[in-house]
C-alpha cells in the first residue's frame, strides 16, 4: 500500500514558496501532475516546473493573484486548456507581513490575511469544486497553522485569517461531502525549511521544550501529511484540522 496519485492533477497555490515547493515535489513523486501557481517568482516557478517534468510528470506554471476572483477564474481556464480538470487543490499561498500587537498592527494587514486565507479558499472552491462534483470526487486541502490554537501576542492578523479559513473549510466539507469530495486542513508548527538549512537554523530551544516529540517539524513532514489527505488512503477523512507539529497543540474533544 502506498500513496498513489497517478492520473491526478494537483494545483498548489504559492508553489514557489518554501513549503509550496516541497508539497509540489511530494505530490509529483506520488504520481500527480502539477499546476505550479506563483504570484511573482516566475524564475522559481519555471525551475520547479522543469524539475517536476524531469521525473516524468506533466506540469504547468501559472501566474495568478489568489486574492482576486477573476484571476483565479483565469487560472482555471489556463489549467483546463492545458492539462484538464484539477482533482486536488492545495491552498498554500498567504500574504506575508510584519507581526506586531493588535494596537499597532496596520488595519490593511487584517484585510490581507482575510483575502489570502478566507477569500482565496472561497474563490478556489467556486472555481474548482464544480469540476470535482462532475467527476464525483476530489480533494480540497488548506494549509492552516498551529497559531490558530495558540493565539499568542502579535499573531492576531494571521490567526484571524486562519480561523476564518477554518470556518469555511468545516462548512464546505458538509456541503460537498455527498459528492465524495473531502475538505481538510493541515496545520504546521514552526517548520524547518530549505532556507533555514541553507542560511542557518533559527534559535528554537525554547520552542522545542514545549513539543512532546522534542524537535521541530520539517517541510517534508508537512508535505507527507498533505499527500496522505490527497490520497485514497484518506477517502473517509473530511472536515479535519490536522496539526503536524509534534504534539505542540492538540485539538480537544
TrEMBL record:
Keywords: Oxidoreductase. The keyword Iron-sulfur does not apply. It holds the Pfam family adh_short_C2. InterPro entries: NAD(P)-bd_dom_sf, SDR_fam. The keyword Flavoprotein does not apply. Belongs to the short-chain dehydrogenases/reductases (SDR) family. This is SDR family oxidoreductase. It comes from Paenibacillus lacisoli.
Amino acid at each position: 500500500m502506498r500513496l498513489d496519485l497517478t492520473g491526478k492533477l494537483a494545483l498548489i497555490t504559492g508553489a514557489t514558496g518554501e513549503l509550496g515547493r516541497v508539497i509540489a515535489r511530494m505530490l509529483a513523486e506520488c504520481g500527480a501532475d502539477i499546476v505550479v501557481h506563483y504570484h511573482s517568482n516566475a524564475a522559481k516557478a519555471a525551475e520547479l516546473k522543469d524539475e517536476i517534468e524531469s521525473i516524468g510528470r506533466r506540469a504547468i506554471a501559472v501566474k495568478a493573484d489568489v486574492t482576486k476572483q477573476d484571476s483565479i477564474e483565469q487560472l482555471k481556464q489556463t489549467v483546463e486548456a492545458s492539462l484538464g480538470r484539477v482533482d486536488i487543490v492545495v491552498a498554500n499561498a498567504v500574504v506575508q507581513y510584519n507581526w506586531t500587537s493588535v494596537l499597532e498592527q496596520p488595519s490593511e494587514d487584517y484585510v490581507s490575511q482575510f483575502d489570502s486565507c478566507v477569500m482565496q479558499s472561497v474563490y478556489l472552491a467556486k472555481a474548482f469544486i464544480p469540476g470535482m462534483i462532475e467527476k464525483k470526487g476530489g480533494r480540497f486541502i488548506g494549509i492552516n497553522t498551529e497559531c490558530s490554537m495558540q493565539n499568542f501576542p502579535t499573531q492576531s492578523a494571521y490567526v484571524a485569517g486562519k480561523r476564518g479559513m477554518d470556518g469555511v473549510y468545516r462548512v464546505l466539507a458538509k456541503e460537498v461531502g455527498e459528492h465524495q469530495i473531502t475538505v481538510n486542513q493541515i496545520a504546521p508548527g514552526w517548520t524547518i525549511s530549505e532556507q533555514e538549512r541553507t542560511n542557518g537554523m533559527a534559535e528554537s530551544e525554547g520552542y522545542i521544550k514545549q513539543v512532546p516529540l522534542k524537535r521541530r517539524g520539517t517541510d517534508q513532514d508537512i508535505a507527507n501529511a498533505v499527500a496522505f489527505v490527497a490520497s485514497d488512503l484518506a477517502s473517509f477523512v473530511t472536515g479535519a484540522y490536522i496539526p503536524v507539529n509534534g504534539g505542540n497543540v492538540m485539538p480537544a474533544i
